[in-house]
Design a protein that fits this description.
The protein is α/β, with parallel strands linked by helices. The protein has 14 helices and twelve strands. It has helices at residues 37-58, 69-76, 94-102, 107-121, 131-141, 166-172, 194-207, 222-231, 249-255, 271-278, 290-298, 309-320, 325-339, 342-354, and strands at 6-10, 19-22, 25-30, 64-66, 86-90, 125-128, 148-150, 180-185, 211-216, 238-242, 258-261, 283-285.
Length: 358
């Protein structure tokens, strides 16, 4: 829309360039050291600030939009950034995610909470993607209500579009057309509830032996989840696709008969939900966080009763036996196009930015 946009992000590996022009958006990547936690922290803060200062000499910014508290801290500490209006898009609570991942509320959680609060306090406005996230930030950081604005996530409705022939897409992924494909894509971490979904498959295949679950994503639980599949004798019914490349992700959504979101907690919004729905794939999700808001607006029957395996299995079996999936597919697609297209979301951000840019 004619704006000059720069992205500052961590250089995750040495194969990535330090600077890249991606369709007019300039991406700057700062180096970090992975030798130790201390080295990572120090190098992140120093190099974020240093890279920002370097960019700022050539491009004076009108506004900064943070998306992650740790990288934000390096800019907050820069003298050059002090007078620039800042907005923070709050995706999820960093200390809460740490506590769930480690089972600890110790020093690590305290430090993350302090960093998150420091980043938030530097901002004129905090954007959340859901009412759930708004309540979370109010409870954890006591941010004034009038400082928070809800702008939901968006989806590329052209890139994530329905398949003209689902059988052909399944064939492209090596999945027989007579299989009922259940798909989920998640970070393989505890809060995602994948253990419960795998347990649900034990019940599902007794009634629908042609059902298969494909799990996309990576994370430290991968080996444990694969062992669970092996112990339950589900090797023929549960497949791990690993980290799916962005350009291939729509294929999996299109091929799926149902997308499953089994989150246990902290589901701030769920962009994967929108991506699947945009591809015309019905989504069944646990009644957790932002999922309740998205699916609740579309059709409350798409929500599981709770996060337990038995409830998931019962609802999945109900929909696998449904003759109305084609009609539901169109309803899902229309819902996303009408409410969550990037064009709508970007307009909301543009209106918000204009309040702080003279």
């Amino acid at each position: 829309r004619g704006h000059n946009v720069h992205v500052l992000t961590r250089r995750a590996n040495r194969n990535l360039s330090v600077e890249e022009n991606l369709e007019g958006v300039i991406i700057h990547r700062y180096n970090v050291s992975f030798q130790s936690a201390v080295a990572y922290t120090v190098s992140s803060l120093i190099n974020t600030s240093r890279t920002f200062n370097k960019i700022f000499k050539e491009t004076p910014f009108d506004l900064i939009n943070f998306h992650q508290p740790f990288s934000a801290l390096g800019i907050v500490l820069s003298r050059r950034a002090r007078k620039i209006p800042k907005i923070h898009t709050f995706h999820s609570s960093w200390p809460k995610e740490y506590e769930i991942k480690t089972g600890s509320c110790g020093v690590g959680s305290f430090i993350r909470k302090w960093i998150e609060r420091r980043a938030l306090s530097s901002c004129k406005k905090i954007v959340v993607l859901s009412e759930y996230s708004r309540e979370q930030i109010l409870n954890i950081h006591k941010v004034p209500l009038n400082q928070i604005e809800i702008i939901p996530g968006g989806v590329d409705t052209e890139g994530f579009a329905p398949a003209s022939d689902k059988a052909n897409v399944k064939a492209e992924l090596g999945i027989p057309s007579n299989k009922f494909l259940l798909f989920t894509v998640r970070n393989l971490v505890p809060r995602m509830g994948l253990e419960n979904l795998i347990n649900a498959m034990v019940i599902i295949i007794k009634e629908k032996p042609n059902a298969v679950l494909v799990i996309g994503g990576s994370g430290f639980l991968e080996e444990r989840l694969k062992k669970q599949v092996e112990d339950l004798g589900l090797e023929s019914y549960v497949k791990f696709a690993g980290l799916i490349e962005e350009e291939r992700l729509p294929l999996y959504y299109r091929a799926a008969d149902l997308f499953i979101l089994p989150s246990r907690c902290l589901e701030g919004f769920g962009l994967v939900t929108l991506e699947a729905l945009s591809c015309g794939t019905p989504v069944l999700g646990t009644p957790v966080g932002g999922t309740k808001e998205i699916l609740g607006r579309l059709d409350k029957e798409l929500l599981f009763k709770d996060i337990e395996a038995k409830s998931m299995a019962e609802k999945i079996l109900l929909y696998l036996s449904s003759k109305d999936l084609l009609m539901l597919s169109k309803k899902c697609r229309d819902f996303v196009v009408s409410n969550y297209s990037w064009d709508r979301v970007v307009s909301k951000y543009e209106r918000l930015y204009s309040k702080f840019v003279s």
